[in-house]
Amino acid sequence: xxxxxxxxxxxxxxxxxxxxxxxxxxxxxxxxxxxxxxxxxxxxxxxxxxxxxxxxxxxxxxxxxxxxxxxxxxxxxxxxxxxxxxxxxxxxxxxxxxxxxxxxxxxxxxxxxxxxxxxxxxxxxxxxxxxxxxxxxxxxxxxxxxxxxxxxxxxxxxxxxxxxxxxxxxx
Length: 171
Description:
Helix content: 10-25%
CATH superfamily: Hotdog Thioesterase
Order of helices and strands: HEEHEEEEE
Main location: cytoplasm
Protein name: 3-hydroxydecanoyl-[acyl-carrier-protein] dehydratase
Oligomer: single chain
Number of helices: 2
Distance between the termini: 29 Å
Organism: Rhizobium vallis
Number of strands: 7
CATH architecture: Roll
Number of domains: 1
InterPro entries: FabA, FabA_FabZ, HotDog_dom_sf
Subcellular location: Cytoplasm
Largest sheet: 7 strands, antiparallel
């Protein structure tokens, strides 16, 4: 097992979004405002719920975040799909961090449960991604379970998040 960096700052995540962290044509994060992560606090190739690796990350919620005024007028909440996208973003990041090559793409998820909402008064989102399997071949595929906490309370859970890295440059 290679020793790899175990946490990443916002500036390093922005470098990843520009294609500078894992090299041209490899896994990238989206740029703001679609970047749903501000820092990765822990990442490991071992451990986690299935002992196949895990990632923990955070996002600082601001009352003036772009999605609040438009979702929904008079009842501002963060769209649940943005939290789910954050989980996919982190799953793909993990594959690039492992040194796997290819462009990332969210492929699917199993069951998703929403038990609460992120509102403008929320201060901190925490993500947890626990890997079940990483397949390496022409298509690199990561399968993981994920959760999202808002100010310490688990409000989203997703089973079988699937993200792939394709070496096909047209993907």
